[in-house]
Write a structure and sequence with these properties.
Number of strands: 8
Strand order of the largest sheet: 5-4-6-3-7-8
Shape: globular
Largest sheet: 6 strands, parallel
Number of domains: 3
CATH topology of the largest domain: Rossmann fold
Distance between the termini: 10 Å
Structural class: alpha/beta
Helix content: 40-55%
Radius of gyration: 20 Å
Length: about 325
């Protein structure tokens, strides 16, 4: 029995054995590769992309289509409402629950996505964080709206200077997160981060794949894909998101294409300019992803390029 076929047959102390991890920049073909492997081996695909967890944004986050998701089981796609500030820790807890509930047992398990911290958490574990009561979360979110990020940065500098000095005064999401943790637990977020959780996969039996596409080819794929997104209803998704009247600092509101298309809808820029801005932002994001993967993922990750041929079982 091959490593792929045996993937997911066992979980040792909460770890998935023989897992396959497929990392790579946006538009590099991760989902297609995962689907091919899952279909050939009756496997299950687990989303490892921080934007594809959100509902509403089916098209703009390039989530697998309904047809593709019907061909093999796809897990942790579109299961989070855009009003939530989903985190790496929350994703790892969701994966842990899938393992504990036996959902990932008895079938090959393929993790596919472009969020580096998700893969790091899978392979190395991540520090536990305290649960934040809704009242605490709402209090600091309200303060952010009323006072702004820079004022809250001053508050953090007074209450937890070690954290504040590591953050930019404009980094609203991390500032609020640090204040929430301190408020809810009485401990600095740095203390929590010093701990380390358990890996969720068995590294010795895992297969680690990283797609490194040709840059010119990737740019062409990104541009063509955004045009296809518009044809498939990206504007309608942005309208749905706007109707929710969400905090603009929420992660879902920062999905590439949302702000650009919002600006066009409001008449601040033309639609062609919005489209070009979104394409440029996507290219820049892909470049950051490739840089992160290149420097953060070790030699044990098999690099794949276009024309390498099919992945063998």
């Amino acid at each position: 029995m091959s490593g792929i076929e045996n993937s997911g047959k066992q979980a040792d102390e909460g770890r998935v054995k023989n897992a396959i991890l497929i990392a790579g920049p946006t538009a590099s073909g991760k989902s297609a590769l995962a689907l091919d492997l899952a279909e050939r081996n009756s496997g299950v695909i687990v989303n490892a992309d921080s934007m594809q967890v959100y509902s509403v944004l089916d098209v703009l986050t390039a989530r697998p289509s309904t047809t593709e998701m019907a061909r093999v089981p796809h897990l942790l796609y579109g299961h989070v409402h855009p009003s939530s500030a989903y985190s790496t820790g929350a994703w790892l807890r969701d994966v842990s629950k899938l393992i504990a509930d036996g959902v990932l047992s008895g079938q090959p398990v393929i993790f596919a996505g472009g969020t580096g911290l998700y893969f790091r958490g899978l392979c190395e574990g991540i520090s536990d964080m305290p649960d934040i009561p809704p009242s605490v979360r709402e209090r600091w979110r309200s303060k952010l709206k009323e006072q702004g990020a820079e004022q809250l940065h001053w508050v953090l500098m007074r209450e937890d200077p070690a954290v504040a000095t590591q953050l930019k005064p404009t980094d609203s999401q991390r500032i609020v997160r640090a204040l929430e943790v301190l408020d809810a637990s009485g401990r600095s977020i740095l203390e929590w981060q010093a701990g380390r959780g358990q890996p969720l996969i068995d590294r010795d039996s895992a297969r680690l794949l990283m797609i490194e596409p040709d840059r010119a080819e990737l740019v062409a794929r990104i541009d063509a894909r955004f045009d296809q997104m518009l044809d498939k209803g990206a504007l309608d998704e942005v309208r749905q998101l706007m109707a929710l009247d969400l905090d603009p600092d929420l992660p879902a509101m920062k999905a590439i294409g949302v702000r650009e298309l919002q600006a066009a809808m409001a008449g601040h820029i033309s639609y062609p300019e919005a489209i070009e801005r979104a394409k440029i932002a996507t290219r820049q994001y892909a470049k950051r992803q490739m840089t992160w993967f290149r420097h953060q993922l070790g030699a044990e990750w098999q690099r794949l390029r276009a024309g390498d041929g099919p992945i063998r079982d």
